[in-house]
Structures are given as structure tokens and as C-alpha cells.
Amino acid sequence: MARRFCLSCGGRYSTTDAAGIQYFHSCPPVVVVRVARGGATLDVAVHDQEPGDTLLGFRDVARANARDENVMASGPEQGKPKHEGHGVLEADDDAALDTLIAQTPAAAAAVSQGAPKPAPAPATPAPAAGQPLPRLGPFSAAADGA
Amino acid sequence: MDAESDDRYADCPGALSPALIGTQAFYVDGADHLQIGVVNSVAGLTLRVSGRQLLLDGTITPFDFTIAPPSNSLLTTFEESLAQGWILSCTVRPTAGTPGQSTTFVLIQLIRGFQGALEVATLQQGFVTTTQRVRFPGEMPGAGAGGPSTATARMVVGTTPGAGAEISQAVPTSKTWRLHQLGVSLTTSATVANRRPAFRIKDALGNLLYDLATADNFAAGTTIFLNLGDGFGSIGPDAAPVGYRCPIPLLALPAGAVISTLTAALQAGDQYSAPVLNVEEY
């Protein structure tokens, strides 16, 4: 069972499970947080948060160039992975994978890969004290970045 | 052209062979071929296909070849030419890899032609394991692939996400999962914030089916094990707290459905473990 590091999202996984059954990785979406920063309201990815940001809300959006190893069920691309993304690093075990990651410049950026850049957002009131951080947008496929 | 005037059958000892008495032998001519169809999810699997044929001259000859089906759970076919005569037997067994119950479904078929082949007979179908063959002749089992009665119990270990990322697990192509339990730990960084994870399930098009957040926040510098499962009566922590239970009904999720988390106030240094799912897969 080989170990892989996804260059589209920074995830680690084994190619098969203990029973030998193939595992198909797909990247998670990116969490976007709405923050108040320096008098402005911004939508930023989790990794772009800064100390002093006031959290106003959050949601997830589809990750750009996400990897999806699940195969196409039909059509001319039947049997091929749905999307290669930025590819993977592969090694026999985690120790060898760590070595490979350290030698690969693109690996350092993998975790924040595909996240949107900080962007201005509409003014949003801060949640009342003790209230949970609200989700942004309607609970629809489009708004949730499906 | 009847048998008396057709030179192909004149003085054919094969047709009178005791090898045919009481058998389910299939006669094949030069246009008929053997097709092995496989639906498989085990990596590194090799299947050996072997059998016997009775030729027109009365001799019995074996056939024997190996196939390596992919592990993507899609139907893949392998064709092999046959000699003119009768198929007496065919058996399919694994020679590499470890197919478990319901992971590898095999069809033994006859086709006519190769290009635009016509499927003319299914000789046998069933699941092959390390101790179970798919063989012709034999009684054909009632259940084909893909039904709940052929489910395999699996412990699926998903992807360990990068720091500051959510977990996300999709049901593989051509599979259905009955989700019994998902377990994952969240270790929060030293950054002060009140994290609150939610579990979500969407279909392949992104339509939301299930969305449940924990009733409690998790502070900086803590580790909590989240248990999503059917059978929990209520949402809440255990006494320690070490674990947190989130109830969910037993769901049958088709291919492409996605199980994920969405965490309020997630920080860049927060780390989810690889989720472990107990599912029945078919």
C-alpha cells in the first residue's frame, strides 16, 4: 500500500485499505472566512486570516484545480480519474514521503492550493456575543461552491 | 445446409464423444469467443481463466490465460479466441491479490465476433474469492453484483487533510455506502477561537442532505474525537470529555455523495485526523 501526498490540497492517504481495496482521494473544499480588518470587510481563506481579524461569518467554496481520483463511470473517459489536479507525490511509507515532500517546492503551498485570494466583501454585522459564527449565503449548491 | 451434407460435421468423432454425455457443453465455431467480464475493487488482482474444450476431432484440449482487471469497480471485459468445438468447462480463480466477499464480480460469456460483438450467452456469473471459484458448468446464483444482499463491510480510512482544511470523503464510482459510523479527531491550535464543527452530506450535484453542527464549541489547544453514527440518542460530549457524539440515521449513499465537515472559526493550524468510516459497500 503506497502513501500519497496531494499537491492540490496537502492531504495524505494510502492508495489501498487494509483489505487491498482501492482508495479514491478527492480534495476537500476551501473554507472562506469573512473578516473585519482595518476598517474593511474581506472574504479570506482560512490560511489568510491575520491576528486581529474579527470573524463575521464563514462558508466553503470549491477548491480550484481540485484532484478527484474517482473514475468516470461512462463516456469516452470511462475509467479515468475525474480530475488530476496538481498531481501527487508517492512513496512506500510516510518517512519516504516526508523526504519527498521536503525536496518538492510545490508541496509547501499545497495546503492553501486552490484557495481564493482575499477579496472585498459586503459589510456584515459581527455575531452577538455568545452566538455561533454564522454561515454565509443561502444553503444552496451554488453558494456552497458545489 | 444440414449435418449430412456439411463437411464440417462429416465423420466428426467429437459429436459422438462420451465427453458430451450429460453435460451442459456449448458448441462454438470460429466466430464465437470467450468473454470474461469483471467488476473489481481490489488493487493488484490477477485472475486465471482456464478450462477444457472438446475439438471436432474428438480430442480434449485445455485453455488457460491470465487477466489483470482494474480496481475501479467498472465493468471491464477480456476476450479470448476459442477453437471450434465444445466448451466443457471454465473456471475463474484469483492468483494474485485477495478478493474478499463481494469485491470481485465475474461474468463468463460467449460473444459472437470481436468488433461490435454480440453477447450470445452468459455461461456463469458470481463473486470470486480466494476460496470461491466462478465456474461453468454450475448453477448460476440468483444475485448479481451491486445489491444490498452482496454488501461488504469496510473500514475506510480517508485522507488526512492538510492543516486548516476540512475532511471530505466521496462514495466511489459505481458503489453505494450504508454509513454506520464515522470517527475523526480535531486538534485545535493555540490560536484563540471557538471552533464548532458541522458534519454535512451532499449528493453528487452538491445538494445538501444532512447538516448537523455540534452543540458545543471547542477552544484552542484541545483535542476532541467526533463520533458520527446511527444509534446515538442525542448530541453531546461524553463525561471526560474525550469524545463527542453526533447522531445520524442509517443512510444509503449513492456514488458521488460526499461526507464532509464545515467548521466555524477553523484556524490555519487546526488539524483533523484521517476520518475512519464503517460502511457496508455494494
Question: Could you walk me through the main structural features you see in this protein, from its secondary elements to its overall organization?
Answer:
The complex is a heterodimer of chains A (146) and B (282). By secondary structure, chain A is mainly beta. In chain A, 6% of the residues lie in helices and 29% in strands. Chain A is built from 1 helix and 9 strands, in the order E-E-E-E-E-E-E-E-H-E. In chain A, the strands form 3 sheets. Chain A has a 4-stranded antiparallel beta sheet with strand order 5-3-4-9, with no helix packed on it. In chain A, a hairpin with a 5-residue loop joins strand 1 and strand 2 (12-14). Chain B is an all-beta fold and 282 residues long. Chain B has strands spanning 26-28, 32-40, 46-55, 60-67, 76-81, 85-96, 104-112, 118-127, 134-136, 152-157, 168-170, 177-187, 196-202, 208-213, 223-229, 236-237, 243-247, 251-253, 258-264, 271-272, 276-281. The two termini of chain B are 49 Å apart. In chain B, the strands form 4 sheets. In chain B, strands 10, 12, 15, 16, 17, 18, 20 and 21 form an 8-stranded mixed beta sheet that branches. In chain B, strands 1, 3, 4, 6 and 9 form a 5-stranded antiparallel beta sheet that branches. A 4-stranded antiparallel beta sheet of chain B has the order 5-2-7-8, with no helix packed on it. Chain B is 0% helix and 48% strand. In chain B, strand 16 and strand 17 (243-247) form a beta hairpin. At the A-B interface, strand 2, strand 3, strand 5 and strand 6 of A face strand 10, strand 11, strand 14 and strand 19 of B.
